[in-house]
């Protein structure tokens, strides 16, 4: 069994990878991450106990020192082991990649969103992801 220290320990950084079927959407070191599960947000610090969580559609925040990276992430899974955080999701997009006006328009016409063509997401899930994309995009401005 892997060793772990209590959350908040002085173990260094987390290694984070957010992976979609098409690409690695984000990869790097982080001081902390906050993700959205089905029952709310949760945070991970270096030294976190091993775990696996089903993710809900939501924001994913990555803290690197005083700087934050924001992503819109679809449903998926998050795995933590030995300060390595791996996210597997069908959709992830960073705030810098999202155009606010496009996100607003695609939220309204979620069924026509080209980013979600062939997706197993239902109409309400597509609308929710559209709202999350718009909110994440605004955070980068």
Write structural notes for this entry:
The chain has 141 residues and is of the alpha+beta class. It folds into two domains: 81 residues, ATP Synthase, domain 1 (Sandwich), CATH 2.60.15; 42 residues, no CATH class. 18% of the residues lie in helices and 40% in strands. It is built from two helices and ten strands. Strands 2-1-9-8-5 form a five-stranded mixed β-sheet, with no helix packed on it. Strands 4-3-6-7-10 form a five-stranded antiparallel β-sheet, with helices on one face. Strand 8 and strand 9 form a beta hairpin. 32% of the residues are buried. The N terminus is likely disordered.
User: Class by helix and strand content?
Assistant: alpha+beta
Question: How would you sum up the global shape?
Answer: globular
The CATH topology of the largest domain turns out to be ATP Synthase, domain 1
CATH class of the largest domain: Mainly Beta
CATH architecture of the largest domain: Sandwich
What is the CA–CA distance across the termini? 43 Å
Q: How are the strands of the biggest sheet laid out side by side?
A: 2-1-9-8-5
| Percent strand | 35-45%
Number of strands: 10
- Assembly type of the shown chains? single chain
Number of helices: 2
Q: Extract low-pLDDT stretches.
A: 1-9
Secondary-structure element order, as H and E?
EEEEEEEEEEHH
Number of domains: 2
Q: How would you characterize the largest beta sheet? A: 5 strands, mixed
- The level of helicity is 10-25%
Alpha-carbon Rg, integer: 15 Å
